[in-house]
Amino acid sequence: MTRAWWRRNFWWMVALVPALVLALATSSFRLVNLYLPWEWSRPTVAGASVGTLEQRYNAHDGKEHDRKVTVEVLSVKSVPRFEDHAAIVGATLWEVQLRLSASPDQDLKHCTIELVDAEGTRYGFEGGRRAADPDDRFYSSTVSAPYCVPEDTPGPTVDGFTGEWSEPEVPRPESWELRTAMVLPDGYEPVQVRIGWKMPEYLVLDIDS
Predict the structure, then answer these.
(1) Who is most buried in 28, 38, 119, 181, counting CB within 10 A?
(2) pTM given for the model
């Protein structure tokens, strides 16, 4: 660019700087305030097989609540079957056992659990299904969204339509074990477990070898 070009366009270039700043600020606002809250974007990395997730979240009653739950990875191992489920050819079924500890007054009914391999690929509950027969029960896991509390003592829950809380007659214990399973392709092994209840916060735990 010549000196004459700079003289002709100097003020246009000066005016361009705040426009670029505004464009970047707008895109950052959308990312931080519109997109990231609806993704698993805020990890708590335990750096061990046990860790604690702390979260403030909005429930269906329209109020803010605090969640604090400690999760420990007891076991992650490959198995030929899990209850009525098995992996398809070319995949391996992995059983996951966790211990959860939390105050009985917290809503912890549904959570999202994923396994992560050394490449950083996440595996959930949708892989490894047999699609040929819709009545075939040999799926990768028992449910698509894990029921993360004891079935007989689930603790309090809030109705998604009315916003009303229901309290069980028998309180949930302060500690319980969760057992589920999912599928990874043959040759891949999980190195981490991810668990979360409401986006964007989640907990990352190591799997002890």
Answers:
(1) 181
(2) 0.76
Residue 199 token pair: 């986006």
Q: Categorize the per-residue pLDDT at 144 as very low, low, confident or very high, splitting at 50, 70 and 90.
A: very low
Alpha-carbon span 74 to 133, nearest angstrom? 34
Give residue 83's identity as a one-letter amino acid code. Answer: E
Rounded to whole angstroms, the Cα distance separating 36 from 94 reads 30
Q: Say what the pLDDT of residue 23 is.
A: 65
> Cβ(160)–Cβ(125) under 8 Å?
no
Lowest pLDDT segment from 36-45, 136-145, 183-192: 136-145
CB-CB contact of 100 with 195 (8 Å):
no
Q: How far apart are CA 116 and CA 204, in angstroms?
A: 9
DSSP codes joined into one string, 80-132: S-BTTB-PPTTEEEEEEEEEEEE-TTS--SB-EEEEEETT--EE-SSSS---S
CA-based nearest residue to 110, from 64, 60, 63: 60
Residue 123 CB contacts under 8 Å (≥ 6 apart), including other chains: 114, 115, 116, 117, 182, 183, 184, 190
d(CA 92, CA 87): 6
**Residue 28 main-chain phi, psi, to 5 deg:** -65, -40
Give the best-scoring range by mean pLDDT among 22-26, 184-188, 191-195: 191-195
CA dist., res. 204 & res. 53, Å (int): 9
> What is the model's pLDDT at position 25?
57
